[in-house]
Design goal:
Strand content: 25-35%
Keywords: Iron, Metal-binding, Oxidoreductase, Peroxidase
Bound molecules: protoporphyrin IX containing FE
Pfam family, one: Dyp_perox_N
Helix content: 25-40%
Cofactor: heme b
Structural class: alpha+beta
Radius of gyration: 19 Å
Shape: globular
GO cellular component, one term: cytosol
Family: Belongs to the DyP-type peroxidase family.
Order of helices and strands: EHHEHEEEHEHEHHHEEEEEHEEH
Distance between the termini: 21 Å
Number of domains: 1
Number of helices: 10
């Protein structure tokens, strides 16, 4: 397997999600390709300035940009984010050619990196989304539940997130899905703690798992547990809270890395359509998805070789 990007980096105090589209014309595409290929050098410019902390950036390329940008065949499962229309809630599909997922111990490094990156791109791209998230107390999301607990660790982490021999040309790569959610905190806070816990599937104060419902309405945790004859299929989530209190905007930026794209897609289907339908994930009654894009993060060498 060729060396992956920093898919397994830990949750940090700050993270940015920068989504770009490549402008039309051969010149813009050529320029974008050069900047994409120079990711290692751009990262070095920042990393040398970081004392002991963490600074990582993963770069994803969407189905739309893959062939014109890379001039290589598509990774086996890469396709555009499919809109999912449930009886009450929709997982919208939005535009995006490139994703830069930056993780750092402080926002200054995130801003510095984005600045030099966007200067390098010049007129070749348009930023369609740029959100910087922060670590909320005890690793909680803005619904005030600890978020990220069930993430795979140890050897399960690469097994859940990195493509293997099923697609040898792209072994070491990872599928990544992003969705920006905006919360209705007033309505959420109007619910009792017990109701909130039933919706999430864990206790609020001490983060203990509640038993799975065997029938009827399932919790978020249960709907996102994907099991088949091979066992449980995990993904790696690096969700970050973000907020602009003055505008009343409070949200969760969902990001999920997986070895198999279908696993994340299945979770979304169970959340939005429900299992059984129409019993959708009640987290959606308080959280509206306003974006949805799928990318593939190829191994490092693949990106660097694009310069040739
Ligand atoms: C579990 C929050 C969206 C997949 C959880 C937990 C919380 C949470 C608090 C329980 C603790 C944990 O294990 O992390 C949220 C919020 C979301 C969101 C606030 C957006 C509003 C999603 C989406 C997916 C997803 C879109 C997948 C497509 C999962 C998975 C688990 C989980 C796989 C662990 C299930 C298990 O226990 O095995 N989420 N989540 N989440 N969530 Fe989400």
């Amino acid at each position: 397997m060729t060396e992956p990007q920093d898919i397994d980096a830990p949750l940090t105090a700050a993270a940015a999600f920068l989504v770009l589209t490549i402008n039309s014309g051969d010149e813009a595409m050529d320029q974008a390709r050069l900047v994409v290929a120079s990711i290692e050098d751009l990262l070095k410019d920042i990393k040398i300035q970081v004392n002991t902390g963490i600074f990582t950036c993963n770069l994803g390329i969407s189905h739309h940009a893959w062939e014109p940008l890379t001039r290589k065949p598509l990774p086996k499962e890469l396709k555009p984010f499919q809109e999912i229309r449930g009886a009450q809630h929709t997982a919208v599909a939005t535009e995006g050619d490139l994703l830069y997922h930056v993780r750092a111990d402080s926002v200054d490094l995130v801003v510095e990196f984005e600045k030099i990156l966007l200067e390098a791109f010049g007129d070749s791209v348009t930023a369609v989304d740029d959100v910087t998230g922060f670590r909320y107390y005890n690793g909680r999301d803005l619904l005030e539940f600890v978020d990220g607990t069930a993430n795979p660790i140890g050897l399960s982490l690469p097994a859940a997130t990195l493509v293997g021999e099923e697609d040898p040309a792209y072994a070491g790569g990872s599928y990544v899905v992003i969705q920006k959610y905006l919360h209705d905190l007033k309505d959420w806070r109007a619910q009792t703690t017990e109701t909130q816990e039933q919706i999430i599937g864990r206790t609020k104060f001490d983060n203990i798992e509640l038993p799975d419902a065997t029938e009827g309405q399932k919790s978020h945790k249960t709907l996102c547990t994907i099991e088949d004859a091979e066992g449980e299929h995990d993904i790696l989530r690096d969700n970050m809270p973000f907020a602009t209190p003055g505008k009343g905007e409070y949200g969760t930026y969902f990001i999920g890395y997986s070895r198999h794209l279908w696993v994340t897609e299945k979770m979304l289907e169970r959340m939005f359509i429900g299992d059984p339908p129409p019993l959708h994930d009640r987290i959606l009654d308080y959280s509206r998805a306003v974006t949805g894009v799928t990318f593939f993060c190829p191994p490092r060498k693949f990106l660097v070789d694009l310069a040739d």
